[in-house]
Specification:
- By secondary structure, the protein is of the alpha+beta class.
- The chain has one domain: paralog of FGE (formylglycine-generating enzyme) (Alpha-Beta Complex).
- It is built from six helices and 16 strands.
- The strands form six sheets. The protein has a four-stranded mixed β-sheet with strand order 14-13-12-15, covered by helices on one side. Strands 1-4-16 form a three-stranded antiparallel β-sheet, with helices on one face.
- A hairpin with a 4-residue loop joins β8 and β9.
- The radius of gyration is 21 Å and the shape is globular.
Length: 318
């Protein structure tokens, strides 16, 4: 009898622990707005050329220039997109979620390959713990204070839809890593060491909880810029090209599609990860429908130079 009771108690305790880890945390409806002085609308050019990629520094070439966002996409930017896309009838709201059409991907029947068929895909849930974008039946808006935090709870489909709506795209892993580390093979965007006040990751959570209280896990984009906020002095967590939050805060969706699985990769680590996950070569993966409170994204865009266009026009006129 005692043996049966012990098993029941252990089973019940495991269920409680499991439930705690799978439940997404509640976030405050309103928090103080923190101005970091960083403009989330800015882009930076990453020049063509070689760089050292991966933990073992493989010499890798990107033969073209491209632009990448200086910060992750914010809640305010994503709400703006949702309003524009809703007006253009590119998205729909139903079943307490935002949906958008995706054309699907070829299926080759590889072992472990996922089918990604054409159809309506979830971009973002609504009214779930962790979501700070709200819909009143007509328009999307952001809960007060969260405007310049990175958007989270957005699936790969949701990230891709944002980029494509504006003529952008998600970065490839190569493009992202070069933008994050430059050309000298460093482990972190700013160098080879990491400190608690240099990025938002597991070791800095207690400090941030003291500043904002329970339920606030993300920091405003560009927060770790060397600025002092009250008594909290940050260090510069900036990449060689001037990008913020390329390590910590939220994982970032990549644009690569690997046809043998159709999984999507993420880079950069998050507030819930240790130092080793913030190294520029670390990666994570999930299905394109996945979303969570520690996953966001930023976009890249291709450059078209005026001189190239003029040469093409001159050639056509000859």
């Amino acid at each position: 009898m005692m043996k049966i009771l012990t098993i029941i108690l252990i089973t019940g305790l495991m269920g409680i622990i499991s439930g705690c880890f799978t439940q997404q945390p509640m976030v405050p409806d309103e928090i103080p707005y923190v101005d970091t002085g960083v403009n989330s609308e800015e882009w930076v050019v990453i020049p063509a050329g070689e760089f050292l990629m991966g933990q073992h520094n493989h010499l890798t070439m990107i033969p073209y220039d491209y632009e990448i966002m200086v910060t992750d996409v914010t809640n305010q930017q994503y709400a703006r997109f949702l309003n524009a896309a809703l007006q253009a009838k590119k998205i729909a709201v139903r079943e307490e979620a935002v949906w958008g059409y995706y054309p699907g991907e070829p299926f080759h029947g590889y072992d472990h390959e996922r089918k990604v068929e054409a159809g309506e895909k979830i971009l973002m849930p609504l009214n779930k713990p962790g979501v700070v974008i709200i819909f009143d039946g007509r328009r999307f808006s952001v809960k007060k204070g969260w405007e310049n935090h990175p958007v989270v709870m957005v699936s790969w489909f949701g990230a891709n839809a944002y980029c494509q709506f504006y003529g952008y795209r998600l970065p490839t892993e190569k493009e992202w890593e070069k933008a994050a580390r430059g050309t000298d093979g460093r482990a972190y965007p700013w160098g080879n060491e990491i400190h608690r006040n240099q990025a938002n990751y597991y070791s800095s959570r207690n400090l941030l909880k003291k500043l904002w209280g329970d339920g606030v896990f993300t920091t405003p984009v560009g927060y770790f810029n060397g600025k002092k906020y009250g008594d909290y002095q940050t260090l510069k967590g900036i990449s060689p090209y001037g990008l913020y939050d390329m390590a910590g805060n939220v994982w970032q969706w990549m644009g690569d599609d690997y046809p043998d699985t159709h999984l999507r990769y993420m880079r950069g680590g998050s507030f819930n990860n240790y130092e080793y996950n913030l190294r520029v070569w670390a990666r994570n993966s999930a299905g394109p429908e996945y979303y969570d409170i520690n996953v966001g994204f930023r976009c890249v865009r291709d450059l078209t130079y005026e001189s190239d266009n003029q040469e093409e026009e001159e050639h056509e006129n000859q």
